What we know:
There is one protein chain. By secondary structure, the chain is α/β, with parallel strands linked by helices. The protein has one domain (9-232): NAD(P)-binding Rossmann-like Domain (Rossmann fold, 3-Layer(aba) Sandwich). It is built from 6 helices and 7 strands. It has helices at 18-29, 41-53, 68-81, 107-135, 156-176, 208-219; strands at 9-13, 33-38, 57-62, 88-91, 138-143, 181-188, 229-232. A 7-stranded parallel beta sheet has the order 3-2-1-4-5-6-7, with helices on both faces. Helix 1 (18-29) runs parallel beside helix 2 (41-53), helix 3 runs parallel beside helix 4 (107-135) and helix 4 (107-135) packs parallel to helix 5. It starts with 8 loop residues before the first strand and ends in a 6-residue tail after the last strand.
Amino acid sequence: MTEELKGQLAVVxxxxxxxxxxxxxxxxxxxxxxxxxxxxxxxxAEVQSHIRSTGGTAHIVELDLLDESSIAALVKTIQxxxxxxxxxxxxxxxxxxxxxxxxxxxxxxWDTLMGTNLRGPYLMIRALAPLMITAQSGHxxxxxSLAGRNPLPNGAAYSASKWGLNGLTYSVAEExxxxxIRVSVVAPGSVNTGFSRNDKNAxxxxxxxxxxxxxxxxxxxxPQSFVSEVLLRPTQKP
Length: 238
């Protein structure tokens, strides 16, 4: 445990597993109070238990990014239980739906993917950035992907969502800079999130903890500057 972020409140979406869990544990280890936001309450409880066992502070907030009322409930929790304070927002939650050509993708799947990967971060920023504006400080970090810079056959919708998230990040960063709010995007390549159980090259992939370390660097950057984008690649191609 360290105290670089002592007294700060961090909200992490998709905190139940993978990258989101690793980021939550990292921020808690630096002294932040972390709101673990996702739909899977049981998995969130596991992350919370780990954080508490190492001396950190974390609270569970069930969150459905497709439901605006769920986000409104999160804001209400912050206002009533955390003094309307939000120092760090990590928009990490995302889904893939990769493996089929775009012409075979159902419109409902497109809507779900875009709602989670792009509309969700928009709604979270819209809901929580005003708290940061009031405080005249804050960090917003969007977890994107190298697929947001490169073509991804059989993953066109996912790629489009991440291209969109990148554009959202760059533009919102300019809108919020006058308020001393720093907005960054982290774009990792192949990450070992445990979804491919038979992946023989898992150790060659970027690990969730690698992404968490980048987030830690971003939120402790000297106040006179900020890193707008980080591209995170595996040292060796998986």
